[in-house]
């Protein structure tokens, strides 16, 4: 096991992306995103994903050089055609104008379509909260999740992330898949020989199983909270696909692109300027009062605490990378 400095890890990942055909800008955005996930302990969307990024690039399914196209959608609306590129560069291109619109009008919807999102969502929302805005992000993917009663999966694992400013410049963030666990964690469980939690998935015949391979081989993941999680998955399909102009998770067809691992789907972000609300005490102070009430009631861990603790550890000690992972990463650099 080595411990890598964040910048050194970013440089290695940047090299992998660029040697596999992305522009320098896209390589930098994706490398920072992926290294941040590993640094913050989001293993299902950190270095584990690099082989998939490369497979998707090499299959020709995603365009790593394309420029996202911004379309005026109205005073509080910004449409972005990611043009079959990655989602993060599309969001990076849209963010300055979206922030301007949110401040000018109170809110802004960012509707990104035809985009590939392979990553964790908290990096998509954190920067907005750090600039004083409330941000909600919704992303659909491919059909991995079967709602109660369905015979086959229809929804993606459809993550939902939320970020809001707290007092003293801090923020509160949660970021969660709609499935009991992310598909990436099922793949990691299969790789490492671990069982899934109960109620996480079903096998190809619809029987409950804790075997990750049975879920991956024709089975399905289940939404958290039964029909309640399924309703959130439904909302995310509608917001990330129907609203943006993207594909529904069940419509994705990459049969012409063997090896591709991300879908060309959509993502929707909603930015809100909380100073427009009605709180006399100030929004961030009210959020702080709620967090204090939760702590006083006995909730010790808030969403984001584990991630921030992992980040602090990594900044102090470096990011742990196994010798095997380092070999794999070096093997992904195209000649
Ligand atoms: N791009 C895509 O299509 C997809 C991406 N993903 C990504 O996968 C990642 C993992 O998702 P998922 O497995 O659902 O995430 P987790 O279940 O690990 O965590 C979900 C949220 O709950 C918080 N949390 C976890 N445990 C507790 C606890 N005991 N008390 C309080 N808060 C807690 C986490 O904070 P903390 O981070 O601090 O642990 C996090 O904000 C996400 O980043 C998601 O965006 C998932 C599906 C698809
Ligand atoms: O882990 C997941 O679930 C996913 N992550 C990236 C894209 C597809 C689904």
TrEMBL record:
Q: What is its EC number?
A: 1.5.1.21
Q: Which reaction does it catalyse?
A: L-proline + NADP(+) = 1-pyrroline-2-carboxylate + NADPH + H(+); L-pipecolate + NADP(+) = Delta(1)-piperideine-2-carboxylate + NADPH + H(+)
Q: Which BP terms in the Gene Ontology apply to this protein?
A: proline metabolic process
Q: Name one matching Pfam family.
A: Ldh_2
Xref: Gene3D superfamilies: 1.10.1530.10, Hypothetical oxidoreductase yiak, domain 2 (3.30.1370.60)
A single Gene Ontology molecular function, please? delta1-piperideine-2-carboxylate reductase activity
Main enzyme class = oxidoreductase
Protein keywords? Oxidoreductase
Family per record: Belongs to the LDH2/MDH2 oxidoreductase family.
Q: What is this protein called?
A: Delta(1)-pyrroline-2-carboxylate/Delta(1)-piperideine-2-carboxylate reductase
Q: Upper lineage ranks?
A: Bacteria, Pseudomonadati, Pseudomonadota, Alphaproteobacteria, Sphingomonadales
């Amino acid at each position: 096991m080595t411990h890598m400095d964040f910048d050194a890890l970013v440089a290695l990942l940047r090299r992998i992306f660029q040697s596999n055909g992305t522009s320098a800008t896209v390589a930098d955005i994706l490398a920072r995103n992926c290294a941040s996930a590993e640094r913050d302990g989001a293993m299902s969307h950190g270095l584990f994903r690099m082989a998939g990024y490369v497979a998707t690039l090499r299959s020709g399914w995603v365009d790593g050089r394309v420029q996202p196209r911004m379309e005026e959608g109205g005073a509080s609306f910004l449409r972005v055609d990611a043009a079959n590129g990655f989602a993060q560069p599309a969001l990076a291109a849209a963010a300055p104008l979206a922030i301007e619109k949110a401040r000018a009008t109170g809110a802004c919807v960012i509707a990104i379509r035809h985009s590939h999102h392979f990553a964790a969502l908290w990096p998509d929302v954190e920067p907005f909260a750090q600039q004083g805005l409330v941000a909600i992000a919704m992303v659909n993917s491919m059909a991995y999740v079967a709602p109660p009663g369905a015979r086959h999966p229809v929804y993606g694992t459809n993550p939902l992330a939320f970020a809001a400013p707290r007092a003293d410049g801090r923020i509160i963030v949660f970021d969660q898949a709609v499935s009991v666990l992310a598909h990436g964690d099922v793949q990691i469980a299969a790789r490492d020989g671990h069982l899934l939690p109960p109620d996480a998935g079903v096998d190809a015949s619809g029987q409950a199983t804790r075997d990750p391979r049975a879920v991956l081989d024709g089975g399905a993941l289940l939404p958290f909270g039964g029909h309640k999680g399924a309703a959130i998955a439904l909302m995310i399909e509608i917001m990330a696909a129907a609203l943006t102009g993207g594909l529904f998770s069940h419509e994705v067809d990459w049969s012409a692109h063997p090896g591709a691992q991300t879908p060309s789907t959509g993502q929707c972000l909603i930015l809100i300027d909380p100073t427009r609300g009605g709180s006399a005490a100030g929004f961030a102070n009210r959020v702080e009062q709620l967090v204090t009430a939760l702590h006083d009631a006995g909730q010790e861990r808030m969403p984001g605490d584990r991630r921030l603790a992992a980040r602090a550890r990594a900044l102090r000690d470096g990011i742990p990378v196994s010798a095997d992972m380092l070999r794999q990463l070096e093997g992904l650099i195209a000649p």
